[in-house]
Amino acid sequence: MHTFTHYIICCAMALSLGQAARAHSEAQRLAAGQVRVENVNVSNAGGRLVVGLELNLDSLRLPASMQFVFTPVVRGRTQTRRMPQIVVNGRRADIAFRRGASKRFEADVTAVRRKNNTPQTVTYSAVLPYEQWMDNSDVVVNEDLCGCGDFIDNHEVPLKKLRKPFMPYLRPAAEARKDRSVQGRAYIEFPVNKTTLYPEYRNNPAELAKIVETIRVVKEDKNTKISGIVIHGFASPESPYDHNAWLAEHRAATLKDHVRKMLDMDNSLFRVGYTAEDWKGLREYVAASSLPHRDEILQVVDDSRLDPDTREWRIKLRWPDDYRIMLDECYPTLRHSDYVVNYTVKAFSVDETREVMKTNPKLLSLEEMFLLAQTYEPGSGEFNQVMETAVRLFPADPTANINAALARMASGDIDAAADCLDKAGNTPRAIHARGVMALLKGDSNMALRLFREALAAGDADAQRNIDILEL
User: 139: left (phi > 0), else alpha (psi -120 to 50), else beta?
Assistant: First the structure.
């Protein structure tokens, strides 16, 4: 082909390319729509920017003397990095390329000869050292359809937008007073209709030890101070209700006195409560049982019009066989003593928090754990462990769930992050975090809508992610 004719073809293609490239950019097409870009993969893998793609040339009819040059480019606000080029030659252009025209290209160029009217795909992969400015950059393809090697008047087709969102971690509110509690259940056995406690009777030694050990651990911890102990007694429904109330109250008081003396503690720290008959426990047993008349018994248990004695006698008289089973299997478990040890915890410095995190993290506040996390690199194993511990200890706290969700997103676990965001409420910061998730999923339109919603609701930090999206 004569040089003048080659020039005319180049000019004609260049004149049409502006509109054609815009029309096909979202479809990722090059060369005025004749080349399809497929299987695009752009990722940050181990500190390297990896770009992989395929060029489908099936629709390209390339004149013998023409050469197309495609150059993937990483373009940031102030910096640019070119990647190895892709050269597609016509028949005669390929001969010239192999005879020496290739010298103007780097050694790692990907070069192919186009065989018109045949299916043909070019597989491309390239790697660059990842630099921080690439967090918010665009990967584009520059196309030189004249083989002239000059980027000035060439055209770029968008390939991939790299957007690393700002992670809006939220500092939890400080606890004015770190109140904590530990609780348990003991089955202390008393003689029938008696309130006298025999420490060595049946399984009482083990049950008493549970209560004492729970209190002792808190009492001897230098970081805690007991603020109160509650012992709550329960009786089972057999016998008149008033008698059961007397038993529950006085057995709880007897147990309290015994425990107090064993630990040599001030009586003012203790409080006694009681429930005459544990109908809640009875209902749970019946509902989970295979009693022949389970449903009928449940109807009686739930009948609030009946007083407790009437309910108990109705079950006993109507379904005596079921009642005997309940008496043997269920009623002993309804006679129990629940205990709660309330205590306060001292405030910790960051260094102290680091040590307590290893031994007894439930003593920490959310704010203390958050401040500890700030001493680690976001996304590091230590940082993520703190966030996971926080949400494990405070599973219903919106702030803990927002921070855990963001840490999981930063680690690439979007599904697990979604579980936390379901519990994060609908505060401005929760909306902001959902925008981050949308962005990481590739839905920039939804992300922008959520960022703007969060901003309007009062989260000023959302503007940072709006700015990133609007680069």
Answer: beta
- Which domains can be identified in the chain, with CATH numbers? 3-163 (2.60.40), 178-343 (3.30.1330.60), 347-469 (1.25.40.10)
Closest CA relative to residue 78, chosen from 134, 36, 24, 116: 134
Tokens of 446: 């939804």
- Checking if the pLDDT of 23 tops 80, the result is no
Note whether 286 and 298 are within 8 A (CB): yes
Backbone angles phi, psi at 235, to 5 degrees: -120, 165
Query: What's the rounded Cα separation, in Å, for the pair 156 and 146?
Result: 14
| DSSP single-letter state for residue 57 | -
Mind listing the pLDDT tens digit for each residue in 135-161? 999 999 999 987 665 554 468 888 888
**167-215 residue pLDDT tens:** 999 999 999 999 999 999 999 999 999 999 999 999 999 999 999 999 9
Tens-place pLDDT, residues 440-462: 998 989 999 999 999 999 999 99
Global pTM? 0.74
